[in-house]
Amino acid sequence: MTTPSFPADFLWGGAIAANQAEGGWNEGGKGLSVSDLTRGGILSGTMDAAVDPAAYYPSHEAIDFYHRFPEDVDLLAEMGFKCFRTSIAWSRIFPNGDEAEPNEAGLAFYDRLFDALNAKGIAPVVTLSHFETPLHLVRHYGGWANRQMIDLFAHYAEAVFRRYAGKVRYWLGFNEINFASMLPIAAAGLELPPSLSHAERESRVYQAAHHMFVASAIATRLCHELVPGGKIGAMLNLGGVYPATCKPEDVFATLQARRRTLFYSDVLMRGEYPSFIARFFADNGINIAIADGDLDLIGRYPADYLGFSYYATHTVDVDTPVAGHTGGLGKLNPYLDKTAWGWPIDPLGLRYVCNEMTDRYGKPLFVVENGFGAVDVVNADGSIDDDARIAYLDAHLRALAEAIADGCPVMGYTWWGPIDLVSAGTGEMKKRYGFIHVDRDNDGNGTLARRRKKSFFHYRDIIASGGASILG
Fold it and tell me: What is the spatial distance between Cα 342 and Cα 101, in angstroms, rounded to a whole number?
C-alpha cells in the first residue's frame, strides 16, 4: 500500500498579485494599469475611463504591501515558506509600457522585495503579467490584439530577467491566460465594444492569444539565456469539469468545453496548435493572422512547467454555455458542498486535474493558486478561528499528496492569499483567503494591522513536518 507524502524539496508557500496587495498605485513612478481603473473587480467586465478622484478604488492602497512588505515577509518566514509567488507590476517598470528605458524606482522596489525574501530562504516565484497590463498599451495600442505588444513585452521581460537574474529562478508568463475570452480586459488588455459580432469579438480574442503565445516563447528563450537555472511556466485556471450525466451528448460537450481551456496550455506546453482548434475557428468565423516564423518560435520554446490555479469543479451538459471565471466553468455539482461565495469544494478534483495534466503533458506541475474565501470573525481576544479554511487546506493537500503518489510531478503548492488581499473578482476585502488577517474593510476603513489566524499556525506545522502532520 502506497503511503502518500511530499518530496523533500517541495516548494511550500503562498501567492499574491501586485494589483491586489501592493497599493502604492501612483508611487515610485508607477504608471496606470487596467487594475487601477477597476472598482468592482474584474467580473464587472468594465473599467473607468479615468481615475475618479471622488471614487474609492480598493486596489489603490490594497493592503499596502508596497510599504509593509518587510513585516509581511517576516510573517511568511515565520510560517516556514519555501517560496512566495507574486507578480511584477509591468507599469512600475515601464509606466506606459512602451518606454525605451525602465523606471529605476520600480526596479529598486522589487530588488528590495526579492532581497528580503531570499534573505529568509524564500524563493520568489514571479508572474510577469497578472491582470496588470499598462493602461497606455490598452488605450493607445488596443492591447494584445496589436502585434506590437510582442516586442513591448519582450523588452519588459528582458529588463526584469537581466535585473533579477541572480534573485529569481522561477517565473510564470501570463496569469490565467485561458481567461482571455471570458475576462478580456484583465487577461488580454482588450476593451471590446459590445457592437462587435460574435465572430469579430472572438477573432480579436484569439488574435490576442496568438500574440501572447509568441511573446511567451520569446520570454522562455530570454529566461533560458539570461537567468542561470531559470525556469518559466505557463499559467492557467484549471478548475475541473465533469459531465453532468453519462448521456453521450453531455460527455462530448464536456470534452469540447475542456478543449476550449486546454487549447491554451496545448500551445504553450506542446509548442503547437492542437488539431481540434481548426474546426472551432471555422465554425465560429474566427480569423487570425499568423506571421512567418511564429509557429516555429512557439515550437522551439515551450514552457518548462505548468503552473495552474485550482479552486473548484463544475459540471457540463450539452446546453452549458462556455462562460465562467476563477470560481469555475459550468453548472454546480449537487454532490459537493459550497463556500459562502457559492464555489464548490472538491479536493478530489485537484487530484483529478493533476493526473489529467500529467497524462497530457508529462511536465512538472506547480499548484500556484488554491484557496478558500470566507468571512472571518475576530474574537474578543483578537483570535480568529478559521476552522473551515483549515479543513479546506487539509483536504486539498491530502488530495495533492495522493496525486504525487499517483506519479504526478508536482513541484510545489502556493496557497492563494496567505495574507488577506483585495478580491480580484469582486474588489472586496470581506472575502478573505489569508492565514494572516489584515484590518481593512470593503469601504477602506481599518488600520491595516496584521494578525495571525488559527490557520497561520496550522500551515506552519504542515510545512515544518513536510506535510506529515496532516497525512497521518
Answer: 45
E strand or H helix at 368: strand 365-369
| Each residue's pLDDT tens digit, 416-447 | 999 999 998 888 999 999 999 999 999 999 99
Residue partners of 174: CB distance under 8 A and separation at least 6: 127, 128, 129, 187, 212, 216, 235
Please give the distance of CA 140 from its chain centroid, rounded to a whole number. Answer: 26
Tens of pLDDT, residue by residue over 317-338, are: 998 875 444 445 678 899 999 9
Q: pLDDT, tens digit, for every residue of 381-419?
A: 999 999 999 999 999 999 999 999 999 999 999 999 999
Short-list 128, 154, 212, 145, CA closest to 178 = 212
Annotated catalytic residue, options 22, 132, 369, 428: 369
**What single-letter amino acid sits at 197?**
S
Q: Catalytic: 176?
A: yes
Distance CA 268, CA 266 (A): 6
Spell 337-360 as b/e; 16+ CB within 10 A means b: eebebebbbbbbbbbbbbbbbbee
Q: How many CB atoms lie within 10 A of CB 74?
A: 12
Q: Is 191 a catalytic residue?
A: no
Catalytic residue among 22, 132, 176, 402: 176
Phi, psi at 343, each rounded to 5°: -90, 125
100 within 8 A of 61, measured Cβ to Cβ: no
Give the type of residue at 459: Y
CA distance 416 to 127: 14
Residue type at 260 in one-letter notation: R
Backbone angles phi and psi of 302, in degrees to 5: -75, 165
Q: State the DSSP string of 138-193.
A: HHTT-GGGSTHHHHHHHHHHHHHHHHTTTT--EEEEETTGGGTTTSHHHHH-----
